[in-house]
Design goal:
about 25% strand, three-stranded antiparallel beta sheet, about 5% helix, about 110 residues, N-terminal domain of TfIIb, rod-shaped, mainly beta
């Protein structure tokens, strides 16, 4: 069951046998039976991020750009974009040095 604060209309959460508004601090008593109706359980999933690194096969089809490799100093690398975070965040730009093959990423 969900209960909203009568003062500010925000969600009230159970705390120490009472319902409490986290925004304005309004508290409301609950009965012993009622407290079971308002149990709060948080479920978080551990999502592991998989990142695909492009191997040397097929690199020649990727676009290139002039950027300095942090490992060898060469000034040309392949690049590609990949969504590695939430959809509402920008893509991650990956680079792979044409000379030494070092791969690094850049965030916007």
């Amino acid at each position: 069951m969900v209960k909203f604060c009568p003062k500010c209309n925000n969600l009230m959460l159970p705390k120490d046998g009472k319902l409490k508004c986290a925004v304005c601090g309004y508290e409301e008593e609950t009965t012993a039976e009622g407290s079971k109706e308002y149990e709060y359980k948080e479920h978080l999933e551990n999502k592991k991020e998989k990142i695909t690194v492009i191997e040397s096969e097929g690199l020649e089809t990727l676009p290139t750009t002039r950027i300095e490799c942090p490992k060898c100093g060469h000034n040309e690398a392949y690049w590609w974009l990949q969504q590695t975070r939430c959809a509402d965040e920008p893509e991650t730009r990956f680079y792979k040095c044409k000379k030494c093959g070092h791969t690094w990423r850049e965030y916007d």
